[in-house]
Amino acid sequence: MVRVPAGAVPRPGGDRQVAAFDLDAYEVTNQDFAAFVDATGFVTEAERWGWSLVFHPEATSNPELEQRPQGTPWWLAVEGAYWRHPRGAGSEAEADLPAVHVSWGDASAYCEWRGKRLPTEAEWDLAAAAGNDGEGGAHYPWGNVPAPEGRWVANVWQGDFPVRDDAADGHTYLAPVGSYPPNALGIFDLGGNVWEWCDDWYRPGGAGGEKVLKGGSWLCAASYCEGYHNANRNNSAPDSGLDNTGFRCARSM
Prior knowledge:
Layout: E1 2-4, E2 7-9, E3 16-18, E4 21-23, H1 30-40, H2 45-49, E5 51-55, E6 75-79, H3 104-113, H4 121-129, E7 195-201, E8 211-214, E9 234-236, E10 245-246, E11 250-252
Parallel strand pairs: 7-10
Antiparallel strand pairs: 1-4, 2-3, 4-11, 5-6, 7-8, 8-9
């Protein structure tokens, strides 16, 4: 874990002071999650549902593929998809890739097993902005331009989303954790690769019943969501998981 010093995080109505805390340097991997499952017998929510949503770009133009969410037809409900088989039956989770198809509840259970917890959104924001205080504020975890000196330093989408990923960053799917340089604190993959669960409700008081996700993923394009921008936030039901959703743990001092 990495120590994140105390600091102020911009919030509507004034900055919020965040106490120092520890944060995992890496996203939780399939190897990490397997150790948890082997030790506890834990069954994820995707396993109990019997299916999960998998990115299928061909689903956009193929009306024969059913069970597609309205507005985002590139997601396809795939039977048997969960963290161990991330793209359904026949696929196998690679040890050094981030664990995906994990719900907020799954992630919380893992963190508790490790004697940790999920970070708050303010903690996540503080960690992502560390060492990035240049003019205009903290745009990305690695700096204030999306591709420093024309080089992509995070696993995100380049090209025509959702049809073509040019893979200028070297990956068209998940990347092994730590594949790109860390931020100023030594924390890897805060932008891109997988959206990361935070402890907070997306709306005050839990209205809407959704939890916060931060950091963007391998599916985030500048033309679509640019979720890897520090200011951007996502939301999802706490029992849901996709093949671009993962997490890392925090610990209070």
